[in-house]
Every structure is written in C-alpha cells, then in structure tokens.
Amino acid sequence: TIVALMQAGDRSEFKRAFAGATVHDCFNWLSVLVLLPLEVVSGYLHHVTRLVVATFNIRSGKDAPDLLKIITEPFTKLIIQLDKSVITGIATGDESLRNRSLIRMWCGPAPPQTAAGGVGVPPNCTASGHCRQVMALGSSTTSPGRNGQVAKAIQKVINTDLPHPFSWLTGYFAMVVGAGMTFVVQSSSVFTSAITPLIGLGVISIERADPLTLGSIIGTTTAILAALASPGDKLASSFQ
C-alpha cells in the first residue's frame, strides 16, 4: 500500500496500483474471517500441523543438527567464501591485514591476488556487475514506463493466457510463478511490492495480479527459515 502511494500523482495509475496492493490485504482478511472461527471451534490447524511436524521425526536435544546451516552452507560456499583469518587479524589489531579483502572465493575458483596483497574478484563475476545488472533491469522496467523493453516483455508474457485447451491453467501457472519468485527472494512482501508499480503502469493486469499474489503467499519462506534457526529442543514447536 505504501508503494502504491508513490504513484498517487497519476489518478489512473494510482487506482490500478492501489487495487493491486490490496489484493494481499483482502486475502488476509478473508483468511481470518473464514479460518479463525473454524480453528476456534475445532482446533483443526493445531491438530493437523502437529501431525505434519510429527512426520519429520525431528531429533531434539543438544546433539540436534543445525538444519539451517546444513541446508544453506553447501549453496553459499558456491557463491562466496570469506577469509576468517583476515577477520580475526583485524579484530586482534593486525595492521597488515587492515586493507586485505575479506573475500576468499567468489563464484567459482579462488580469485587471483591483487597487487596490494588482497584477494581479487574475477571480472566476469563481480558483485558490482550483478548490482549493475539489477539496476539496469529495474530502470528499463519502470523508468520508461510502458515503453521499456523489459516492461513490454513482462506485459506480453505475464498477461498472455496459455494456448487452448490449457487456457484454464493460466491462473494456476501464474500462482506457480509467484510462488517461485517469492521462494527466490524469501519474502512475499518484497515480491508484491515489486509488482505493485508494474500493476499501476498497466504492465501487469489486475486479473493476473490476483494469482501472482496468491502464489507469493504460498511461496513465502520467511517463517520456515526462522524456524530452521531454532535450537533443537524448540525446533518442532517452531515448525508447528
């Protein structure tokens, strides 16, 4: 809703953006109005979630594994590794390490040493390069409005129905897209806030924003990631 207010200068854009922003709110309100009375009467959510968590066979106690680290560490090591010896040296006051890079490895094989003795970053895999790509994508999507190349591509792909006889699956496919994108950014709020300006510009239609938003709610992983960080004796309760 706050993001939609940024388009308040144009009446028609604001109308579309605000409608897109309140889809998430409407879903939340309807969920509370329907599911909360059912939970109060039957307690079905409590019982169903307990049965689901029981199938995980979670091991509690001091010897329980750090699930979040086990799941994420193999992937994060493929992206970037920090040189902990540099961090330790800086913390202990070693002046020779003050200008050394903290990055030991970034996107592949260990980068070469720089002239200053720090660790270099391969030119084809730099953090600034990724940032420039992201900023360029955002600029080409929003700055030129409906005329940007990325905006036109999104408008054509997202708003197009699947070919007959699978056209009835279009909404479900949009839900999968919304869930997948939200799983990547790990926040439904980030995803819905990102598409709100595009809805205001008319790049994404309100009709297509509905299943995208529902998919983002399905794909949100923030609470699960927070539960994974819980200690072993609290893990089952956190998951439930």
Structural features, described:
It is a single chain. The chain is built from 12 helices and 2 strands. The protein has 240 residues and is an all-alpha fold. Among the domains are: 1-42; 67-81 and 168-229, no CATH class. The chain has a two-stranded antiparallel ribbon.
Structural class: mainly alpha
Rg from alpha-carbon coordinates: 23 Å
| Amino-to-carboxy terminus distance | 30 Å
Uncertain segments:
114-144
What percentage of amino acids are in beta strands?
under 5%
**Average pLDDT figure:** 76
Give the fraction of residues assigned to helices.
55-70%
What strand line-up does the widest sheet have? 1-2
- Number of separate strands: 2
Number of helices in the DSSP assignment: 12
Largest sheet report: 2 strands, antiparallel
Function: Involved in actively transporting phosphate into cells via Na(+) cotransport in the renal brush border membrane. The cotransport has a Na(+):Pi stoichiometry of 3:1 and is electrogenic.
Protein name: Sodium-dependent phosphate transport protein 2A
InterPro entries: Na/Pi_transpt (IPR003841)
Keywords: Cell membrane, Disulfide bond, Glycoprotein, Ion transport, Membrane, Phosphoprotein, Sodium, Sodium transport, Symport, Transmembrane, Transmembrane helix, Transport
